[in-house]
Amino acid sequence: MNAHEDVPTLKLVLLGESSVGKTALVHRFTTNKFDSNTTNTIGAAFITKLYHSQLKPERRIKFEIWDTAGQERYRSLTPMYYRNAKVALVCVDLSNFEDSFKTAKFWIEQLEINNSGNNSDNDSNDKLIVRLVGNKSDLFAKLSDEEKSDITFKINQFTDSTGIIYNQTSAFDGTGLTELFDEIVDGIDDKIFIEYYEQKSKTTTENQIGSILDARMNGQSTSSYTCC
Amino acid sequence: MSTNDNESDNSVRGKVSSSLSSAQIKGPVSLTPTSILPSSSGPTLALNLENVSKGVTRAIDYTSDQLLSSGPRLSVVSSGSTSDYLLQRQISQEEYEGLTEDFEGDEDDETEDHDTEELHNIISDIIRYERNNTINVNSLMSEISYLDLDMFPNPDGLVDEMAYYRQHIEPSKSDSQQEFHYKNKHFFIFSLAGKPIYSFNGSDEIIMGYMGILTTIISTFEENINEEIKSIMVGDRLKIVALNKNPIVLVSISSISYELMALNKSDLGLELDDEIQTNDDKEENHTIRSKEDLILINQLSTIYNYLLSILSKPVIERNFTNRMNYDLRRILTSLDFQNIDALCMRLSYGLPITKEIDNNLLDTSSFGFFISELLDSSIQSINITNTTRTRLNNILLSCKKLKIKQPEEVKSDAISSYFSSVTSSAVEEKYLAEDLLFSLLSTSNKILGYMKPKNHSLSNDDLKIVLNLISSSSNSLQFTEDLWVPLCLPNFNPNGFLYVFVKRINLSDYFKSGIQVQPLDIVLISSNKNSFYQMQEVSIHIIYMIIKNVDVLNTLTQELISSSKLSIYKDIKVPTIKHFIYKLKKSNQFIMNDIIHVNNDRSMNSILQLIYFYSVLHNTKSVKIRSKLRSTYNKSNISSTTIPSATLSAIPNMKLTYTRWNFPHTSVTGFMLSDNDYEFYCLCNVPVSSKDLITHTLKIIKWCEKNKKRLFFGSGVVF
């Protein structure tokens, strides 16, 4: 659990209405714990977490996560958090769908404006990937069938028209979190890993650490060949 | 001729007082609010000139004029020349002037022993007339209970401490009228239009009507006599105080005895000769009018400052001018309301809001907060060696020198920057911490190291806002997280935000053995909202500087562990005094020992007792001593009566208060001693002779003076 381990970093930002469970989601991901007394986030919190996907354990990533406050009064700060971010998780509360979905759509709109601005001089790698996350699936399960199908319909309609990927999670019992983060890590272009370790080896060839890294890099790249 | 303490604080207090000084009610106003009494059984009272804004009939009155005629060695110097001003209101003369004794005499020996001896004589004189300073307390139990003290109304005669807490102290947002009216203390925040924003107790349904009545009273005063209402005294055990911060109003209703005491400020400059005194009084006259409301007004200001700190003044105003009918509630979060609840609790009782209130409280920072407010926003400091403090300050200072080489085009975010402190001839160099204004290193809400710019500083009130931010987020603050919070510091600039980076580090992580040490917080305050990553690198640098040297790390860790356990018995070798507070006036910082030494616990009962004893000690008018007691410090042989007025300010302004509470099985002695440099308060809960009391008091004071650099962080390092 060395936070300074040399692996590529991935910047991720969580957005969404207040109390949809962004902080709980992050804490479930980083510490695998759930605290029902989680207080409102003030400003924003920056958390790092080393992670590798279950399917491809050689893909090690250092997540740099921005857990932002949902309150309106902090909105002026938000652009700083999604600048340079690779992944944005826009969260909705499945047990309080309408309001949180409205805010989610607002954020997705904002991110698209931001993306289109970046697009001109960069390739698709630098593009921010937006995911819609339906949190509190444990409470969703307790809703009536009618309510459930209504929400599902609305989500499907939205993802179909926008092409945005949807994940369903529960920070309370941990459902869906591994899938979500595995999908994120597995979705990263191989090029990023290869380029990262090539650059690393260039800058550190002269010392021992460099050769260790080389070895690791070679291991990484060979295994990624076998995988893909 | 006021003393030079509270430098940073004077302006704030000045503002508060002057805005209040105009708030006297002069016209024959008569109002009849029918149900603003938080006592369901209370009769309807008419408010008129007599009970509006007049002096509190003090429930407790120890220093009295009998003392004027005490021992033959004492003679009164100040005469009643001030009373003309004072007659306008019902502050009695002795309340205001206190007692000025003249110790002119045949003493010319100027040794420390002599000082001790003279103080001893003074105390003996006072104790001889002890009945004036002694409060007899009837108690059924052998151990002291806060319920035995004259602190709170107890209409049902409850004897169980927890039951009383649940019924009268603990905030409750329930719908029950009865529960609401039982509470000792109320806080309300509402818009000037009467829309409720916050209430310490009661549901919306309950408070709605009261908001209307309070708004009516406030606006009636404003419209009819063009005066802001300040306070209303209902009977002699209930006071309503309002703070109008258009467009919002803050109101407190209190039936807590130590909050209704007239606040006797000890630094009014009355110890000088009569002529000067009269001049001073003319100036002080306006401010002293409002002194008796100051305790409650200060509480409301603290809460208002919290609102400013999260919203800033323009945001509050904009919300009211742009969207009429707006009540701030929507932009406040549940965390904000919890924080205000916690503030109200700390301000009134020095207690935290916790479900485990009946257990020993691990965290006594709420008590520290109460004392801090009592001592004019003094900041609690912590005992670490000067070497360590200097080292920490130098680390903070070194951050400003860090330079960052900016690669031509930063493409990858991963290797964003390299920094070095060497001034090399690299092409693009920038200071990493360019936007960094203030840095703090703190532990458990106490400041260890502090860095500030040359031409700016943070007032104690602003520093407390920063420390409160950390404590309010501390249960969620994990070692792996970095916080980035916009915060408005009202005394620094009420119209804008600064950005606060907070990182909590656990020094135990750097030790193999399972050593337990309280976390260290790095707080970096920046003027640029986009400087998070720079601040993060600065914090990494600070951590590196702390841990790179094993010796530094070891010393710091050891000192952190022992710092929170300052013991009079072990560290100062004084057996009788169980608790003390020493406030250094110049920097407005104080130090005190762990409260565990008072009753061997950190219980609610102990905290409430301490709060009561210290409030009484602080708010009771002190006895002034004019003497050559401290002449050893002055090296002057001039008798004080012949000193020309120009040099009068050089005389140490020495005062003392002595109070004893007699219980059937025990007694508690409270003692206050102050001069131009310090205020000292202490409590003994074992019988103590006046000689021991004086000897030990002076021993602690000398220890504090000797260890000044260890005990206080001063004004910090300047870049």
SSE layout and pairing:
The complex is a heterodimer of chains A (228) and B (719).
Chain A: E1 9-16, H1 22-31, E2 44-52, E3 60-68, H2 78-82, E4 87-93, H3 97-119, E5 129-135, H4 137-140, H5 145-162, E6 165-168, H6 177-186, H7 190-204, H8 208-227
Parallel strand pairs in A: 1-3, 1-4, 4-5, 5-6
Antiparallel strand pairs in A: 2-3
Chain B: H1 7-21, H2 83-86, H3 93-97, E1 99-102, H4 112-128, E2 134-136, H5 161-169, H6 177-182, E3 185-191, E4 196-199, H7 204-225, E5 231-234, E6 238-245, E7 248-254, H8 257-260, H9 274-289, H10 294-311, H11 313-321, H12 334-349, H13 365-374, E8 379-380, H14 386-399, E9 403-405, E10 418-420, E11 429-431, E12 436-443, E13 446-452, H15 460-473, E14 481-487, E15 498-505, E16 520-526, H16 532-547, H17 550-563, H18 568-572, E17 579-584, E18 589-592, H19 596-599, H20 604-619, E19 623-626, H21 631-634, E20 654-662, E21 667-674, E22 678-684, H22 690-706, H23 708-711, E23 717-718
Parallel strand pairs in B: 1-19, 2-20, 8-18, 13-23
Antiparallel strand pairs in B: 3-4, 3-7, 5-6, 6-7, 9-10, 9-11, 12-13, 12-16, 14-15, 15-16, 17-18, 17-22, 19-20, 20-21, 21-22
Helix pairs in contact in B: 1-9, 4-22, 10-12, 12-13, 13-20, 14-16
